[in-house]
Amino acid sequence: MKRATIILNVLYCLTVLLFVLDEFTSFDIKNQTLKLFVYFGFLLGAPIMLLWNLFSRQILLIVFPILCLILIIAVNPLRIVFQSQAWQTKAIYYEHRYKSKTIELQWQDIGALGWNRREVEVTYLTPLFMITRKVSPNFKENPDWIENNSPVINETAF
After folding, report:
1. Is this prediction's pTM over 0.90?
2. Beta carbons of 29 and 42 less than 8 angstroms apart
3. Mean predicted confidence (pLDDT) in 68-90
């Protein structure tokens, strides 16, 4: 029972870490399946872990799920559900000559509320993760940026 409690708590901590990184930093989860698992694992895992730790008499481990429930209430559960869609690249405008960076137009489906749109500088870490930054206004002055001749990649979202 103790081993299962430790494994479940470690998995939930990793889920919360990925959620916090994705939601509050420039680190983004690119893979849709992983992002859904992280967001819904964060939402549904807090009450489950609270009850699991309560019934397994791990009183100190109850504090973390309670803090996560407070964060869920503060952020708003519906906002978390609507933000659970991964950003999709619709067009690549520029590519960096030496680094694996691109300047992209990205869209995010937020359900009945429509679409979020952003233009960002993207650095891909793996097929699962990327780091995004706002595009600096003077990036065109740098000769290392090469304009992409065919910027449209995916038009299925319209």
Report:
1. no
2. no
3. 92
